[in-house]
Amino acid sequence: MQILALPCPVLIGRANDLATLHLLVDQAAKGQGGVALISGDAGIGKTRLIAETTAYAASHNVLHVQGNCFPADVASPYAPVLDLLRFLFEQYPWTRPFVLTPQVVEAFQPWFSHLFPEHTIPSGSPFSAHQSALREKRQLFEMISQFLTALSAQHPLLLVVEDLHWSDETSLELLHFLARRSRTCALLLVLSYRSEEVNAGLRDVLAQMDRERLAQELHLSPLLPTEVEAMVQACLSLPRPGLPELFYAIYPLSEGNPFFLEELLKALTTAGELVASGERWLYKPLGIMHLPRSVRAAVELRVALLSEQAREVVTLAAVAGRRFDFTLLLHLTRAQESVLLQALKELIAAQLVVEESAEQFAFRHALIRQTVSTQLLARER
User: Fold this and answer.
1) pTM for this structure?
2) N or C of the chain: less Cβ packing under 10 Å?
């Protein structure tokens, strides 16, 4: 049995966004930096678009430096910055002498010491233990800015930080600081975040960048039906449009989300419902779609963290349909309106449900509803 080799071999539906990023890379290569903000739902294709951009940058002699944020980083000052430096020094060892000065080493303590344990606080350092934390932070920002500016003078620099919604506030402040400086040097910042998970700190920084007109914003929307069909063709290596029944079964679940689409196709081949036969793909009549393990696990984790009241509401809603009325839930749960509203707020905060109007709510994705529904016995449904 042949399992699909994913992700999709070609980038679908992002031509305009990619052209914008290529233009920004070209401008950075000529000494005019800037900032690109890439937003969208989880799985919408932010990382794939960035990968295409970094490949283009490499072909134009622009150094790519990558940093990532993780859920635990919200409480870890400078976590993505350390990730950037680690990537930089591992990929380009010649850059280390530019930054490993006694002042920088001390300013980064204790976060810097675990990255470079061979460097300790020097004696007679010009940094006083009595100076304010605000002044120390400002000096650190200046050092990092000067380092990156000096580096970009030798090689234009593409600095990528993904998943800003998990970043600590200090790192967000530093990226805002660098965004201001980028316009006068060959430094391009490409920053991504999930639009449905913007926290207060990130919202404030985005608002400041917007007021100062520092960034080019790219919001990735779901793929159109024709683009989903093209992606199915590319994933299955089909020479022309085909398997229309498969497309019509998959599209309502993927809703134009490239990651969900890839995971659905992978799940079908793993289950033996989509099989390669020579140069053709054969598929069985599709009943209940086999849910991808990755999607199912993510939804089940979110549901497990809900209160008992919210779990009851989301279960009833999953049986009611993709969209459901507040009044219907009020009758089914026999709860007070305030209690039901609180449960719905919890479901919205968990990124499971969205509010469409005062009376109507809906599951954020069809796959969420199907995951919750398939956990029930047929008789329960």
Assistant:
1) 0.78
2) N
